[in-house]
Structure formats: C-alpha cells, structure tokens
Amino acid sequence: MANSFTITTKDGAQLLGTYQGHGKPVLLISGLGGTATFWTGVSAALAADGYQVFCVNQRGINGSTRGSADLTIEQLAVDFLQVLEHFGVSSAHVVGHSTGGCIAQQIGLIAPERVRSLVLGATWAGSSAYMSALFAFRKQLLQENPQYYQKQGVYLSYPAQWIWEHPDLLQTSPWPNQAKVHIVQERIDALLAYEARSMLQSLKKPTLILSAQDDAVVPSQLQAELQQLIPQAKMHVFPVGGHFFPITLPHEYMSELTDWFSRVKYEN
User: Fold this and answer.
1) Does domain 3-126+195-263 have CATH number 3.40.50.1820?
2) What is the pLDDT of residues 163-205, one digit of tens each?
3) Which string of b and e fits 125-155 if b means at least 16 CB within 10 Å?
C-alpha cells in the first residue's frame, strides 16, 4: 500500500507524492501530465519486487501547488532532488518518461552523486522540428478546446489496438478552470525549451534508454540520438507500444527495468 507525503519547496510550492515498498530506492518521474498516477502499476510491481518507490505530482498538478518559481526542466529536477533529500536517500535509480526523461537527465547532470542509474524512456536531448510543430498545434488545441486536447492526446499516446480495447480512455471530463490550461501550456513551453545536447557527454552514470518504434509523440530517432550523446548508454526498442509503453507493455517494461537494476551494482 502506498503512503502519502507532502514537501514544501523554497518558493512555496507544495508537492504531493507517494512512497511504497522497502529496499533499493527508485524515483519515478512522469511526463507532460506530471502525475504520480501514471506510475501506479509500475510502482506497485517494483514495491512487490523489493524496491522502495517514490512518485510525485509535479508542481501545479493534481493537488500539488504551483509555487512562484519559473517552470523549467531544471526547476523540476530540483523539486525531485528535494524528495530524495526529504527521505534521506543518498542515491536512487532515477526513471523518467517523456518530459520526465528530460528531468532525469538534469538530475544526473546537476547532482550525479544522487543517481545510481538512469532509465530514460521516450525522451530526447533537445527539441526537433517535428516536436516543435506537434506541440505548437497541441497548445493551440488546448487553448481552444481542452476536451479535444485530451482526446487527441489519447490517440497520440496509445496504439490503436489499445484504444480499441480500452474505449473508456476516450471519455473526457471538463477541465476545472483556465489556470490548468495555463499550467499545461507552460509545461509544453518548458519541454520545448529543453536543450542538453552540448552537456550530455559529461553524463557518466549508467544509462538505459527505452523507446517504442511506433511512438507518435517523441519519435524513436530522438532516443537513438540520445544514445549517441550519452557515453556508453544502452538502448532497448519495443517494436510496438506507443508513447505510453510503460502502461501498454507492463510486463515487458517491468522486465527491462528489473533486469537493468540487477545489472547495476548498487551502493549505499
């Protein structure tokens, strides 16, 4: 069973999170949506397998307050480092998906001593023409009709067969207010502003890159580029799974995670 925690940052944001399990620490970082619930299945499976798992609703998301700091990938990395500090965790396996993979990279760059290994899923080293065009369109759609933005996100993030088998994914709910639209827009701006290509040669932590060949949000070519930039990074490509492959491929994803963790010598 997951336990709840709250951390207050220096700029006044209150971050809500959960932790569960006992053993080697794992920090799970979700993407644009910024929710801890993205990891529900993975977190429970890791906890059952002998890991202590930490998840956070990022600032402005699902009850976590926004705070006054600029919303950047670097600031989000600092937020997650506060989680490790709060629990007295000296180092952890840091697992990031999509935007969370950018945050994980930043943690590795600014506080390498807190990272035992990195797992970077469906992420990138810097923006591309494809992503810039896609997210400009998504921002416009979000502003004009948040419900359509939600539904379009489902079609982008999951394989067609998965949506066919889970039609409830297409049921959208009204957004509470314009403030949430603004928060998602600034998160899109943050992910598009992220640029680490010139820094990643200095990222010397054991790194596994995960990718899906049919990812329509962050094409697998961007993960291939990431592998070239990070010294000795390993890469595994799922032939199918869509952008949300931790959800659509739960067993395959867990197998890759636990096999990777077992191959990285753990040190307190």
Assistant:
1) yes
2) 999 999 999 888 878 899 999 999 999 999 999 999 999 999 9
3) bbebeebeebbeebbebbeeebeebbbebbe
